[in-house]
Amino acid sequence: MTNTISIGATVQMIQRAKGLSVKAITDNERIISKSTYYRFVNETSHIPADRFMQLLGRLELTLQEFDFILHHYQLPPVEQLLQQIQRAIGAQDSHQLRQLQARASQLAKATHAHRYDQLTTLTRLALHHLTTPHQPLAQSLETALNALIQDLLNLQLWSKYDLMLCSQIFTSLTPARQTILLTAAHKSFHKYQQLTDESLTFMTFLANQLFSAVHNNQPQLITQIYQMMTTLTLPTKQLVPPLLLKFCRGIVDDLTKQDQSLDACKQALAIVRCLHVQYWDTVFQDVLNDLQSTSN
């Protein structure tokens, strides 16, 4: 775990605000001992990722909710900057990307925060794809991208920021690297992050990567991602996750020639339209168009 001082103190603050005893938050010391808990909140010890997630479970918080509290009830500055970079990439605005690259680089030097180095790499990569898409990566950019990938592989817990970062570099990677990163993220969510809200975030991430694989004609990756999706524990009272799974099952059925009618995809699309879920309506229709154009 990083930033243990702030994390431990925040855990204790929430524990006290909720009126929980140390005995209660440690589940009668089945999660960690009282002495380990006190060392953790007093900034003198680390705890494993799975134990931390169990403490959050006792606090009835997701990792994203905890991160929001940790940063004084606002998005962390690095996450705000990532969102600005995502918007610039979506708009293919090279001028804005250069400004954001300069800002990320300045913040990296001023704060020595590693995540700003990651965002500098991301903006450099985006500018490469926009301005020189047919040229190989410069050696310095290749080295920086390798370092960013290794950062993600070293994670025990994947935050929403990490999934957003992975999404932005994903299509730049070889299929082998894509599989390695997906496997690392899946291991984290399957082993540590089984809270329903966390799983839902990862489910959405996987669905979007599967749809990109459809667009890029990567059948093996489609199958791998779908298999990961089927292992997730999802909220029982939410409608979108089973519709995502149904739509993706239709894609896999078409791919494996079990059923090439795409009926499951069409049924999921019809339901999101009835529910007026505009985002998934647009995404499903775009993917369906890709599938139908490929088959023609």
From TrEMBL:
The HTH-type transcriptional regulator Rgg C-terminal domain covers which part of the protein?
Answer: 115-278
What's the superkingdom here?
Bacteria
Matching entries from Pfam families are given as:
Rgg_C (PF21259)
Signal peptide segment:
none
Which InterPro entries does this one have? HTH-type_regulator_Rgg, Transcription_activator_Rgg_C
Do you know which NCBIfam families this protein is assigned to? RGG_Cterm
Q: What is this protein identified as?
A: Transcriptional regulator
Query: In which organism is this protein found?
Result: Lactiplantibacillus pentosus
> Source taxonomy lineage?
Bacteria, Bacillati, Bacillota, Bacilli, Lactobacillales
